[in-house]
Amino acid sequence: MTTEYEVRYAVGQREVKAYDTDELRDAFLTTKLMQSDKIYWVYSHYERFMVGSAVPLKHSLTLETIPDLLKTEFFTSRREVGIINIGGSGSVVIGDTEYSIANEEALYIGKGDKQVTFKSDDASNPAKFYLNSAPAHQVYQDKKVGKQDANVLHLGSQETCNERDINQLLINSVVETCQLQMGLTRLKPGSVWNTMPAHQHDRRNEVYFYFDMKPDQAVCHFMGEPKQTRHIFVANQQAILSPPWSIHCGAGTANYAFIWGMAGENLDYDDMDKYPANELR
Question: Which residues are Zn(2+)-binding (predicted)?
């Protein structure tokens, strides 16, 4: 079996106030993504959201169920999956249909697809499929979303160090989903803040996956309640699980990119509670 997984249980605000650095990282940071020739999952008890990766190198990888965890015959029996490729070109085969997925292109897989396989075009430059999954209760059509299909928002400015392009890939205005929403944000050179003002989604969770960072660079990710903030330093190709009660924003030591994924109560991208910097503690 080429699939590995771990489980993260939900943690409340009261407990986190007493956490030290190691406890914060153990609860919210994911460090084992993008392993060669392996599908790796973190199953979170926030919205039953799963974050993972598939990196086919020497051979193709099959999206397998996890019997002890999911209790289903196949992975998408009761789940939908979102995919964004951050590596070389590759493909995802769903049944008899093959979708070519280039760098920073996305694919939505709906509930009920029994056979899903990941492949790289070139083992020396493998595809790196970043995966999000959420429970699904309706079947929606599989759909590839290329760069030209994304809804792109240009936000921020050089003056506030947060000039960025937000590529809304798997969101309700682009593709129909049950609850999963995903997109890719890339900061311009000289900009470091990924989200400002900071905000929280009390009606859904969010996961930030940081990438395109040099080995000696990092992002300081801020989380916690608006008046009780905490921070975690995040390296390249690592992800932060953000609970519904937590703010999320971050500042890097250089510009970078990140993928955001959400699931929960609704599909409204702007459903957030904002907290200006001068209100944070």
Answer: 199, 201, 206, 248
> 3-state class of 16 per DSSP?
helix
Starting at the edge strand found earlier in the chain, the sheet holding 50-54 runs: 3-8, 39-44, 50-54, 129-135, 79-85, 106-109, 143-145
The candidate with the shortest Cα–Cα distance to 168, out of 219, 106, 109, 212, is: 106
Six-digit token pair at 108?
């939505």
CATH architecture assigned to 3-279: Sandwich (2.60)
CA 33/CA 186 separation, integer angstroms: 20
* Residue 165 host element (H or E): strand 164-170
Q: pLDDT by residue (tens digit) across 98-126?
A: 999 999 999 999 999 999 999 999 999 99
Binding residues: 199, 201, 206, 248
Tell me the mean pLDDT in the region 153-157. 95
- The mean pLDDT value for 243-251 works out to 95
Record the tokens describing residue 22, joined without a space: 């190691």
Query: Average of pLDDT values for 221-239?
Result: 97
List the binding residues for Zn(2+): 199, 201, 206, 248
Residue 27 phi/psi, 5° resolution?
A: -85, -35
Q: What number is the average pLDDT over the span 169-179?
A: 96
Amino acid occupying residue 177 = T
Instruction: Confirm if 219 and 256 have CB atoms less than 8 A apart.
Output: yes
Task: Please tell me the pTM assigned to this model.
Answer: 0.97
